[in-house]
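Example 9 (inverse folding). The structure is encoded as follows.
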């Protein structure tokens, strides 16, 4: 892999920005943003996360090269890179210490050392959900809030905890790994199991279940089955889609009610692709939470969709880089 050169110029009038990269199991969202959160350029690329580490790194470097070329062509100075990765990220050294099962070869990988040896810019790495939360707090509807829980639902379920305006990472950087919370379930044969939240409530879990039921019924669909398609089928009255999304709403509401009991946050922000499913999804979760938390004032049960949508991770990563460069974080 050739070294990715930084953008250099002596022109003082150039606009300063940072590159934000939001890595997921299926896609990389990336873009250039200014300090005030103006997104100057953004794209999405396949991460090839389940194929191999080499494929994922190749995709990452392609994103960096494209972004730096855009900066060069548009008179921008890129000062650094903020990088959000799934998993338990040691943000002091960039090592992915675990819980990155949606990316082949990622657990135990020294991502920080790899990127530093190739990208000739300062690179700052943290958990992807943490950086999405930073984006929402810096530039989204959570801007005025100090105590916020952010939940991202996609290939897995990620999360971030903001206490007094700061990310709470925990003693081993593992705080906010909501997707690994376990639930007790009972099968038709009476056997009990303890699946993780993301294994039963993530978008990929819903899509997998939907696909299996369609195949069992010998039903064919011409389109790729993904989260958007599932929600479109729900809105069109497909009974299988309705059953699966209703079940998902139950699991999400139960998990969120537990988080509210523990943290008593000002706001719950739900992000990831599922938050684009429509206002009905957020409204239904809040309605179910009011019933689950009947002893609480419903005016204090505040759940919103991530206002930045899929841009939250990019803007949060870019903001993180600015904060680190300014030594104010």
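The amino acid assigned to each position is listed next.
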């Amino acid at each position: 892999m050739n070294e990715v050169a930084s953008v250099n110029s002596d022109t003082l009038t150039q606009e300063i920005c940072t590159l934000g990269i939001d890595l997921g199991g299926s896609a990389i969202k990336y873009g250039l943003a200014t300090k005030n959160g103006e997104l100057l350029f953004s794209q999405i690329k396949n991460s090839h996360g389940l194929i191999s580490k080499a494929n994922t790194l190749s995709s990452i470097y392609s994103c960096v090269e494209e972004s730096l070329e855009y900066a060069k062509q548009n008179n921008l100075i890129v000062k650094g890179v903020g990088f959000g990765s799934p998993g338990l990220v040691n943000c002091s050294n960039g090592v992915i210490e675990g819980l990155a099962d949606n990316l082949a070869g990622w657990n135990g990988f020294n991502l920080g050392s790899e990127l530093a040896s190739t990208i000739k810019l300062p690179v700052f790495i943290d958990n992807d959900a943490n950086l999405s939360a930073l984006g929402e707090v810096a530039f989204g509807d959570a801007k005025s809030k100090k105590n916020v829980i952010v939940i991202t639902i996609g290939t897995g379920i990620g999360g971030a905890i903001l206490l007094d305006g700061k990310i709470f990472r925990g003693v081993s950087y593992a705080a906010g790994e909501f997707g690994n919370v376990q639930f007790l379930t009972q099968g038709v044969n009476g056997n009990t199991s303890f699946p993780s939240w993301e294994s039963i409530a993530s978008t990929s879990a819903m899509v997998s279940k939907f696909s299996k039921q369609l195949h069992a019924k010998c039903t064919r669909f011409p389109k790729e089955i993904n989260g958007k398609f599932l929600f479109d089928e729900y809105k069109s009255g497909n009974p299988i889609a309705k059953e699966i999304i209703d079940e998902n709403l139950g699991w999400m509401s139960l998990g969120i009610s537990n988080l509210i009991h523990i943290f008593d946050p000002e706001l719950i922000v739900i992000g990831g692709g599922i938050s684009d499913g429509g206002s009905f999804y957020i409204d239904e979760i809040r309605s179910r939470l009011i019933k689950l938390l009947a002893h609480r004032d419903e005016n204090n049960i505040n759940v919103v969709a991530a206002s930045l949508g899929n841009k939250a991770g990019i803007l949060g990563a870019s903001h993180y880089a600015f904060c680190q460069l300014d030594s104010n974080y």
